[in-house]
């Protein structure tokens, strides 16, 4: 009798993108032609020509990085049904949820994320959920205690009726209203669940508003004298599945790591390392999932999809270190007015990276192999550096096997020890083991280090999407997030873990190195973006030019680049099922982010390198949104402002270009035409108008009120800079 071969758990699917490749190469050829033309004609032109040459050389370089990254797009198709047939004994998974501030990250968001994790389609006796609270908040702990009571009703309800959306606030938001053809039993249980969730929400809301229904005694005694940056470790087993029942509620553990002023905390990376060690002592699952507190599970079978990739490798060459799901968002405004839903980014560049060495680690929605986080390379048999772990937890942490069932409370003392501030002293944690320190984007740095050891990673994008989160809304929140990303990415670029060094000295593939460079050069790109945004205005004010004249052949090269690039990027959005308006919103926000948040992030890294200041991890404010009428709000998608210096550069760019267009309209110029020089052509005027359109959100801010208006202090500073620019332009035109 023939023995059938084991069923494949996944397959790699390569996308056909012949036409996009041809267009991208055409744009590259045009860019190189324009750069070459500028180079050979530098002697016949002035400063503006040289500056345009430098900027366009940079744009050509970043386009090369983009083309390389998108060249071999791929995806993975998983077969969970094969997994259940071939591997009935599923491996254990430790689930990590991180939160840092109960004000910026409301506990009700964390609760919904935790409830969706506890109700996932996976044996409960194989799961443990750890919540890291870096805010050390009794409110967060109280919310989780109340959530655990609700979970005992919610988890069986979801599994009994195969509920798809298992975050209650989304399930009961109106999108899942009862249909008429459901059973009476289901209607009654649905009503009961809705009432129970509303009661849970009311309790958490009352506690959030200061109506604490508890005193800081008993279970809450550890919070009685807590200071946010100076307190002992707090670990609480909120719920334990003591009987190990597969249909029960998984373990739920609360952790607030020790913090002392004299010890560095390393932001989220430090919290993740504490979660890794504490879970290693208490449950020690071979796989770990980490999600942000606002990123709930949207596909209850995602664990099975991920295990197909993590368990389906046939040899070490196809073994994956981690499985990353794309970031998707709920309640996104129509046409993505803030350009932060990242749909096209993941659709093309994301899948292009999948076709090389694997996707970047995005910091949330990612399944990790514990042995990889502990520092293993693909061909290692034992963990390097494990001898430096303290004696109390060394054997458990280095065993790489799921510990035998035991009461979690018996591990509390060892867990508190590995969560202490001094535990990492003299070890490789944060350097070679765990989440890597040294950047505010610890996720990219950790993923880069793992790829540098020779590991590959996989992309898991089932339908429906695996995880959904809330994208930042308004201007300040978006800019804060973009600034933090830029700062962290530049910190990596100028560190010893730069993609350059890992490609030369490690096992980072060359094209993967180029993909990382495309990402990490965002900050430096702000400089040529800024120069190119004010160059047309400078030429108009000084009656000079930086573009070839209409009669020159090179003019058609510049025009072809402009038209081809915009049509091609528009086609990407249309192919992804998005609208023309979504394309335009993303184009303008890309330029706005580049010349505001990215620019400030670059300056902060320069100041850090000069020893003048240090970078700070800024938590992005998160809010629970279920308002279906947002798209009909007159101010929906309108950029908001505050007094942050991050908005000064964008306002200055707008004022400079408005001044230049006024100069052109009034026929006022400075000097060069009068001396017989070529003045600005139609190209410079078109470019200046294009810049004003890109910064139209700032134009509206000039006349807006409240948070929709640019603050007067920002206007004064930007106006002074614009006047200084005009004065400088006039001075240079007279030299």
UniProtKB/TrEMBL annotation:
- Cell location: Endomembrane system
InterPro entries for this protein? Cellulose_synth, Nucleotide-diphossugar_trans
GO cellular component terms, semicolon-separated: endomembrane system; membrane
Q: Which GO terms describe its biological process?
A: cell wall organization; cellulose biosynthetic process
Q: Where are the transmembrane segments?
A: 22-40, 46-67, 553-571, 592-612, 646-673, 685-703, 715-733
Q: Where does Mn(2+) bind?
A: 268, 292
What name appears for this protein in its UniProt entry? Cellulose synthase-like protein
